[in-house]
From TrEMBL:
Alphabetical list of InterPro entries matching this protein: C-type_lectin-like, C-type_lectin-like/link_sf, C-type_lectin_CS, CTDL_fold
Listed name of the protein: C-type lectin-related protein 4
Keyword Protein transport: no
SMART domains on file: CLECT (SM00034)
Keywords (A to Z) from UniProt: Disulfide bond
Organism: Plakobranchus ocellatus
Keyword Nucleotidyltransferase: no
Domain C-type lectin per the UniProt entry, residue ranges: 133-247
Transmembrane region(s): none
Matches recorded under Pfam families: Lectin_C (PF00059)
Gene3D superfamilies linked: Mannose-Binding Protein A, subunit A
Length: 255
């Protein structure tokens, strides 16, 4: 559908409870009192000077291809793409009455299908709406073999630098221990992330190793893994075999 025709269709349906836009994507229009109970995250400031709900819908879909929805406030003419919806606590809750009934919470896409390359799953972590792409390598491999396999897929063994990312690793591991992308193979005691060759910081150490800091065990433990026994990262023998968690950056930005 051409942009002009799509815009006309959006305008035609703007007064109804739903707005259909490009590729049969659907926005459900919800009143402010309903949306006030739905936590959501906005990771972009959006735009001002937008005149109508329909215009906000059209701009969101054409500019932020992977957006999940939008919020429109008519008084300032502010349109903000919604990039993720919260499950559970956290996020931004819109106070009832703070916006008019044109506030829209989108159910545009339930899955970010085009966010990651084939085989990888789009995963949100943390309360700021961070996304990454993850794939569990289920074959039992040494650290080096898992690293090589992941690199061949265009990624790196996963960076697990925060408590939130640690929980993601735990969920993917499903009770197993898995390799992650951290080692001190170059210099003893200097742990480096595969993702960008950055050194493990003290803050990261506290967040993901907790009371089990890397200690080289009986000697020769140089490779990082998520340990199912402790639910933390630990150092382990690189020649042992286990599953691995592979990560890639998103294919494109959300907006």
């Amino acid at each position: 559908m051409k942009r002009g025709a799509m815009a006309h269709l959006v305008k035609q349906l703007a007064t109804k409870s739903e707005i259909w836009v490009e590729n049969e994507s659907l926005f459900s229009l919800l009143s402010a009192d309903i949306v006030s109970n739905i936590p959501y995250g906005v990771s972009t400031s959006g735009w001002t000077g937008v005149s109508t709900t329909a215009a906000c819908a059209l701009r969101t879909v054409t500019t932020c291809r992977l957006a999940r929805g939008f919020v429109f406030e008519s008084a300032p003419g502010q349109c903000k793409p919604v990039l993720w919806l919260h499950q559970g606590s956290g996020g931004t809750v819109v106070p009832a009455g703070s916006v008019d009934t044109h506030l829209v919470n989108m159910f545009l896409r339930n899955q970010l299908d085009e966010f990651c390359q084939a085989g990888f799953e789009a995963v949100k972590f943390g309360n700021e709406g961070h996304f990454t792409c993850l794939l569990e390598l289920t074959s039992l491999s040494t650290y080096q073999k898992a690293s090589t396999e992941c690199k061949a897929l265009g990624g790196y063994l996963a960076s697990v630098r925060t408590a939130e990312k640690l929980e993601v690793a735990r969920a993917f591991a499903k009770g197993s221990s898995v390799w992650v992308g951290l080692d001190d193979l170059v210099a003893e005691g200097v742990y480096i992330w595969q993702e960008n060759d950055a050194r493990l910081t003290a803050t990261e150490l506290d967040a993901v190793f907790g009371q089990y800091p890397p200690d080289n065990g009986a000697g020769g433990q140089h490779c990082g893994r998520y340990s199912a026994a402790t639910n933390t990262l630990d150092d382990y023998f690189c020649t042992e075999v286990q599953k691995a968690l592979c990560e890639t950056p998103p294919l494109s930005g959300l907006c």
